[in-house]
Amino acid sequence: MTPVHYVDTLIALGEGFTTEFKRKSISNLGREICAFANATGGVILIGVDDGGEIVGVGKHNELKSKVQSIARSAEPPIAVDVESIDEVLCVTVPEQHSKPYSFSGKFFIREGATSQQMGRSEIREFFFKEGLIHFDETPCTNYDLERDLTPQIWGRFVRHARLPDGLEPRPALDNLHLTKDGKMTHAGAWLLCDDITGYTLQAHVTCTIFRGTTKTYILDRKDFSSDLYTIYEDVIGYLQAKLNTALIPHARGRDERLELPEDALREALVNAIAHRDYRSTANVQVHIFHDRVEIVTPGGLPAGMREEDLGIKSVPRNPLLFGMFYRMGMVERVGSGIKRIREMCRDYEVPEPVIEVSESWVTTTFKRPIEEVTPQVIPQVTPQVTPQVTPQVIRLLSVCDGELLREELQERIGLADRKYFRTDYLRPALNADLIEMTIPDKPTSSKQKYRVTEKGKLLLAEVEGPQE
Predict the structure, then answer these.
(1) Among 23, 195, 271, 353, fewest CB within 10 Å belongs to which?
(2) Is-contact 274 321, C-beta < 8 A?
């Protein structure tokens, strides 16, 4: 039974977000119960006036029955506890788990010390906030299937999504739930485009390198805004090019070792892209400082997820997009992403990342082991170039004599995996200005070739040393 001093404390604190006083009448009681159910719960004290004076009510058993009847008439029915505390009837509305609730066909929410009816836009926002509507599943009105779904975009998507060749686009997209009622969903638009900002302005990812440990001086900044899969690959390529790489000697030669575990960075990045709030005016940001790497995700945690749940369960904010990432091999369906990141860092013998959560942001911070990596970096390369150079890039430069197609370069290196070639060889070399395109205005041209820049030639000569 609720103790008397509990009620005395509630009265002393006054009406507020979780407390409502009613003198005797139970008019509008359904409105108050509904508002508390749509918030975090609350207590209604019947028999207390607005000034906090106890006036009491009679016929408690009859009143209890009416209160329960009102609560059950909500849609869906709301569970409440009703107790008599001396002359006061205490109606407790626990936190509910079937939001939203309506009463007499209207939706109410608690604002401060009052209960207010929600307008259409407020109801829509409430549904999004509670995870009852997923933005990635809504129609993207800017996407024109006839105009925007080009054969080139479809072919690229088929490869990324590991679909069989020869599928007709429209039936396939319907079966993947990326189109609904003849309209492309936002998830579909983000995956089948050349410039994602044409459909969702802040859906791109920004990478920034800062000098030192603060944001005072920017050394480099780059926006990635193609489709989400390519954005993911390009950002990983940027990190590979800009972070330090050590060469570890062994009996059969040397192995490369990025200063931070690449798989952990991949997992953190894909989490940021998959779980961010795409209605936010902010975008995913990757910050590289002298001592750390931060991956910043707008939107906070999704509905139903608490900070203590990190590493234990997963509640995707964008389930359709998350499902496509699973098909593309970018994520696992089980909610163990954070757990895997921590395990990979431990196995790599670097500190586990620090994850900070606020209402609007989730920030994952990897500490850079600068002191351990720097002495092992390739000694022949100047300090200005070293962070951008990997053994793969050196190998690419060594085979690129003249102007060659991507297929020709890949064949000379002896690689069958096109994705690995692009992410570990070609993109880092392009980002470091060591390789350039012969047709830069048409990066995806079938006639595109690549050649070593003057900077690349100087680097290669320095690495290979004087010839006998």
Answers:
(1) 195
(2) yes
Residues 48, 31: Cα–Cα separation, whole Å? 18
Look at the pTM and tell me if it is higher than 0.70.
no
pLDDT at 123: 62
CB atoms < 10 A from the CB of 203, how many?
A: 24
User: 239: number of CA atoms within 13 Å, CB side?
Assistant: 29
Based on the domain organization, do 359 and 214 belong to the same domain? yes
One domain, residues 109 and 176: no
Model confidence at 261: pLDDT above 90? yes
Contacts with 345 (C-beta within 8 Å, 6 or more apart), sequence order = 261, 264, 351, 352, 353, 366
For residue 429, count CB atoms less than 10 angstroms from its CB and return exposed for 0-12, middle for 13-18, buried for 19 or more.
Answer: buried
Strand blocks (E) in 171-276: 179-180, 183-184, 205-210, 218-224, 245-250, 253-258
Same domain assignment for residues 263 and 398: no
Phi, psi at residue 357, to the nearest 5°?
-125, 130
Per-residue pLDDT tens over the stretch 21-37 = 988 878 889 989 988 88
pLDDT of residue 245: 83
Owning domain of residue 433: 378-464
What is the distance, to the nearest Å, from the Cα of residue 197 to the centroid of all Cα atoms in its chain? 16
Count of domains forming the chain: 4
Nearest-5° angle of CA 49, CA 51, CA 55? 35
Tell whether 247 and 141 lie within a shared domain: no
Residues 272 and 419 in one domain: no
Distances (CA, A) of 162 to 88, 153, 158, 188, 331: 65, 14, 6, 15, 14
Q: Which of 237, 233, 248, 317 is nearest to 280 (CA)?
A: 317
Do residue 450 and residue 397 come from a single domain?
Answer: yes
